[in-house]
Design goal:
Helices cover about 30% and strands about 25% of the residues. The chain is an alpha/beta fold and about 425 residues long. Helix 8 (about 235-250) packs parallel to helix 12 (about 375-385) and helix 11 packs parallel to helix 12. The termini are close together. The structure holds ligand EPZ.
């Protein structure tokens, strides 16, 4: 398994480019199931989860072409025939977002067999809200040896109020409703930009949707959808990770090709920490404003402070003067990075959903273990300011969601390199 070797101490200087959003690309690729025409998506990130989604769609009979040439980062998907509407466990176990094909498959073919996603490092992450919603739309869903078997002659529009705000739950049901008979009204929806991005693609495919990006979404079902071309949003979590990299190293970093309005909660928090921020149309410049000051965060659904930035922020908090309280409201076990940060010298205590970070503590290099995508990013940020050379193991977690992560960071002065396993295999 690959490792990263990171030598701390360099301020990051220059311009770093943000790739397309993985969490937009995944539902948008699943949306191609809804039509027999070709769907073309641009600004697709070259990350492992996208490759996994390609495998999943191909296994069901779709033609998927992924191109990462200099100009493209484009995928062409054509689900003319879905010969095997099954999301197999071997694929689903490596990426729980595979459950995003459930709604589109039932809507398009009337049948779906999707392996239930297992647990996850950051929490149980059930999909009961997806299932309840599809049943409310007329699907019959049973559990069979670890798989969900779903059938529906034709889904019917429904009025659904989500018990909890769920991003992929909103996306799954939104896709299903586009081909349902009649009107659907969904309340307590997720407002994340990834939902809005998906809705923009669906409308380009002929869907009738109002209210995406707000808590209430109305959909008028149609009988067919057609192909479309759509450009995926920039990845707001990758952009946020780079903003914190600039701040924690005391550098002067221009984060380019991003969407600043998706970063409002993080930018406001970084300014509270004393970081200098200049916001442009499609870029954000972060500079040191002297000593970092402690500030509390509570993760909330969008537009609140994103849970996917909590681990990265905690690394910054170890370098901030004072006590920062970090409350994780979305997932029940999203502090896997804490013990590793403590091993590097951080002073953090956990009580339930709250972590208390006492800073500023000098961080020491160490051998650390990556556990999930964003915890891994947090450890890289800590390593960028640690004294000496930190070895990060199991960086495949990072490869799932960050495109060319080490190359991009090296391009702005980080001392980071990938090391194959001892036998040189990748
Ligand atoms: C999406 O996951 C993202 N993944 C996650 O990003 C992100 O952390 C999360 O939204 C929250 O923003 C993708 O978009 C592919 P949820 P999702 O459903 O949709 C509970 C990353 O790092 N819940 O909004 O799975 C759930 O357990 C990943 O890129 C139910 O109880 O998250 C959680 O506590 C990690 N029943 C809360 O709701 C359900 O049926 C929010 O989860 C669904 C969710």
């Amino acid at each position: 398994m690959d490792k990263f070797v990171v030598r701390g101490g360099n301020p990051l200087l220059g311009t770093i480019k943000v790739s397309g959003a993985k969490n937009s690309a995944l539902p948008c690729m699943a949306a191609a199931i809804l039509t027999e025409d070709e769907v073309i998506l641009e600004n697709i990130p070259q990350v492992q989860d996208i490759e996994t989604e390609r495998k999943l769609l191909t296994s069901m009979g779709a033609e998927v072409e992924l191109g990462y040439g200099r100009a493209q980062h484009r995928t062409h998907i054509k689900c003319a025939i879905l010969s095997d509407p099954v999301a197999k466990y071997e694929i689903v176990k490596t990426m729980r977002a595979s459950s995003l094909v459930l709604g589109p498959l039932i809507a398009r073919t009337g049948i779906a067999r999707v392996a239930m996603p297992g647990g996850c490092a950051i929490g149980g992450r059930p999909i009961d809200l997806h299932i309840n919603g599809l049943e409310a739309m007329g699907a019959t869903i049973t559990q069979d040896h670890g798989y969900l078997e779903a059938r529906a002659d034709r889904l019917k529009g429904a009025h659904i109020v989500f018990d909890k705000i769920t991003v992929t739950g909103t996306e799954d049901l939104l896709m299903a409703a586009t081909l349902a008979e009649g009107e659907s009204v969904f309340e307590n929806c997720a407002r994340e930009p990834e939902v809005t991005d998906l809705a923009a693609l669906l409308v380009a495919m002929g869907a009738k949707i109002e209210g995406a990006g707000t808590s209430t979404i109305r959909i008028q079902g149609v009988s067919k959808l057609h192909g479309a071309r759509h450009r995926i949003n920039p990845d707001r979590i990758e952009a946020g990770t780079f903003l914190i990299a600039g701040a924690i190293t005391g550098g002067d970093l221009n984060v380019d090709c991003c969407e600043p309005k998706h970063l409002a909660a993080l930018i406001s928090k970084l300014e509270q920490c004393g970081v200098k921020i200049d916001v442009g149309a499609d870029h954000v410049r972060v500079r040191s404003g002297g000593e970092l000051k402690a500030a509390d965060i509570t993760t909330e659904e969008y537009p609140g402070f994103p849970t996917d930035m909590q681990a990265q922020y905690m690394a910054l908090a170890t370098q901030s003067e004072g006590t920062s309280t970090v409350i994780e409201n979305i997932f029940e076990n999203r502090f896997m990075h804490v013990q590793e940060l403590i091993r590097m010298g951080a002073n953090i205590t956990i009580s339930g959903r709250a972590a208390t970070v006492r800073g500023k503590t000098p961080l020491q290099s160490a051998a650390v273990m990556c556990s999930d995508l964003r915890a891994s990013a947090s450890l890289v940020l800590a390593a960028l300011v640690a004294d000496g050379e930190t070895i990060l193991d199991r960086v495949y977690h990072l490869d799932r969601g960050y495109e060319h992560f080490e190359e991009k960071l090296r391009g702005v002065g980080a001392q980071i390199r990938r090391m194959g396993d001892v036998f040189g295999k990748r």
